[in-house]
Amino acid sequence: MTPHRTIRVSIENWPLTQPFVIARGAKTEAVVVTVTIADGDCIGRGECVPYSRYGESPATTAAAIEAAGVPASHDGLMRTLPPGAARNALDCALYDLEAKLAGKPVCDLIGRPPPRACETCYTISLGSPQAMADAAARVPHLKLLKLKLGGDGDEARMRAVRRARPDARLVGDANEAWSEALLDPLLAVAAECGFEVIEQPLPAEADDALGTRDRPVPVCADESAHVASDITALIDRYDAVNIKLDKAGGLTEALAMADAARAAGLDIMAGSMVSTSLGIAPAMLVTSYARWVDLDGPLLLARDREPPAVIRDGLIEPPPAALWG
Questions:
Q1: Options 100, 104, 143, 244, the catalytic residue
Q2: For 303, which of 34, 66, 238, 259 is 20 to 30 Å away at the CA?
Q3: pTM here?
Q4: Is 148 assigned a catalytic role?
Q5: pLDDT tens digits, residue range 111-139?
Q6: Are residues 176 and 89 in the same domain?
Q7: Residue 45's beta-bridge partner residues?
């Protein structure tokens, strides 16, 4: 641990306005792990969302962060911890601290484009076709909707939402819930309904089937891609990759993924888990390279951090310096 720096780790619960439902289950709150690194009166903060799909829990993530201590450098952190939530929180907290000590935004420190306002997806939770259509109709001011899909019945879900919102841009996220038998018919319905992309239709361990057929709608990898070294294996199976800091293990690796995806000719979705504004703020540096942005976590919360990220009518602004970076 750096001698003059201290670290504090906390597990926090942030209630949602309504249950968030995907193919894997439902949640009523966002459980996050927050890291604060202090250097005198200057502090840097980072947040992560442990994900049970990858064997993470809030308790094990907090313990891993405490065991690692204050990182001396981003490169050292990449060698010390594996990709995942714990490394993400530490990486982002260190960037925030460095920016505040230097009096410069993170983008200037690392030579990346400054984030600009961009349109984010708004997520429609998995439900009956009518419930999802009603949810889409309740937000007529939001023009980019992301439907959580679940396999059987998805053709009705996609058609119902399209009827309810003929004006909206639509993307779908199956969270590995489709089978190979469902793949072709459901992609055909997605094309019929004008979906721009379908995210992770098949389980990561069975996605080789994507390379054996035409895809009438672009397909985006999520669970099949965590770090930059995963990109090469995607090229014949996917058209895009969802880059999430919690998967990659921080902003450092997320930007490396973006560089690798662009070099491979893949489109990019800048995504995140359901988190507070502190969790999505660092991901704004990935949005400069993204065709789609999915950083709507704060819109799903009953309350958020102060100051929050500003999201108006689906447009998310660069994070205020008092929040992060």
A1: 244
A2: 66
A3: 0.95
A4: yes
A5: 999 999 999 999 999 999 999 999 999 99
A6: no
A7: 36
Q: Domain with 126 in it: what CATH number?
A: 3.20.20.120
Are 20 and 69 contained in the same domain?
yes
Active-site residue 244, yes or no? yes
Could you say which of 104, 143, 146, 148 is catalytic? 148
39: phi then psi, degrees, rounded to nearest 5: -130, 95
Query: What does the pLDDT read at residue 3?
Result: 57
Each residue's pLDDT tens digit, 1-11: 455 899 999 99
